[in-house]
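Input record (Table S2, row 463):
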Amino acid sequence: MPLLIKGGRIITATEEYKADIYAADETITRIEKSIDASKLPKKTEVINAAGKYVFPGFIDPHVHIYLPFMGTYAADDYESASKAALAGGTTTLIEMICPGPKDEPWDAYQLWRSQAKKKAAVDYSFHMSVVRFDNKAKQQFEKIVDDGIASFKVFLAYKGALDLTDEQLYQTMTLAKKLGVIVTSHCENAEAIDAMQKSLLGASKTGPEWHAHSRPPVIEAAGVHHICSFAELTGAHVYTVHTSCDEAVREALNARYRGVDVWVEAVAPHLVLDESYAELPDFEGAKYVMSPPLRHKRHQDILWHGLKSRSISTVGTDHAPFTFDTQKKMGLEAFTKIPNGIPSVQERVDLMHTYGVLKGRLSLKDMVSACSTQAARIFGMYPKKGTIKVGSDADLVVYDPKPKARFTVKDSYSNADYSAFEGWEKIGRPAVVTVRGQVQARNGEFVGTIGRGQFIRRDATHG
Ligand code: URP
Ligand code: ZN
Ligand code: ZN
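Output record (zinc ion complex):
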């Protein structure tokens, strides 16, 4: 059905202006000062956006939905995750494909695609994790890139589960350079973490509050230094995911200064939650166990400043939902068994508006840049996604900046049984969310069609 959005204030990463937007079908066909609704087809859906912002659909470049991990599976599927994303204003997800080292990459790719195909209500793509590299795997990675996946993922962490040898890392990055695909990287030194975990557990330090002690900032900085060194050696482009601290950001920026093509991602939990949450009594801290861990509050300012100066490019979530009641409690005896992850795909945009824009840390344009445009550019979806232009997909968020409410698990579509932000104030709400011209959410409620989400084919981003 044709769509007209009238009277809103359009915000992109570079512009702010008042105009009407018309989508005859799935893409934006007109942007004009005033479009006369009476001259449009009768069946046009007209949305009054007066007093509201109109943002490009938000993109979350780092989520986990189907995730076999730490002896369990993440709690969401594409239906619950899509609903959560859309209710919160996110219209495109990039999920990490995380197979085990014995799995064949092509089979894993097909498995992850099949999880999304029937149930996605958002558009989606994937980062293909390389957890093993040999000749057989290499041919499959080439086929996967040919099929429209323009990014790899490597883990320098999770010893014995997802990490690679340095020789395999070198081969992966050499292939990435040849194919022109970017390598996204979880940057923490697996060996050092393993040693520190053993030493903490040996000293009977088993609670969730010890998780952060097993992976301090220097371990993350070492990981960023490592991936950037390999980028320097191979010429591959790299993207450091969930970069959480001053030391790690500095390593990336130092590498950029040397000419390394490195981009930096922050994620919502690190921007607003600090290490004290993982110290909550009665094992409640387990809700806040993620990797890299929540840090001292001082790092939050570094991340916000990095976003404002745009030296940090993106804000994702690393949405990795595990239930507190059953899954997080797998780690009652040892923090090393607590499934790592904090769900936040539904909350990200409201968190950024409330605790970023309204606190004066970011402009609205910075917010759009970090939560939409840069992800589209870095991962080869721009200008189809990530902006408001004639020809772009009509993925739009009509955002009402005024309503005040509180985050609560009761409003969450994720299958996790808790909200990491329970009771926190939020100001603003996605009033209408469209995906390719169709309304998929209204006022924080999913009203769309499950299965409507499309796979986004992405081509190599650099030569
Ligand atoms: O704690 C996290 N980040 N869980 C999900 C897996 C990952 O490392 O991204
Ligand atoms: Zn990670
Ligand atoms: Zn992740």
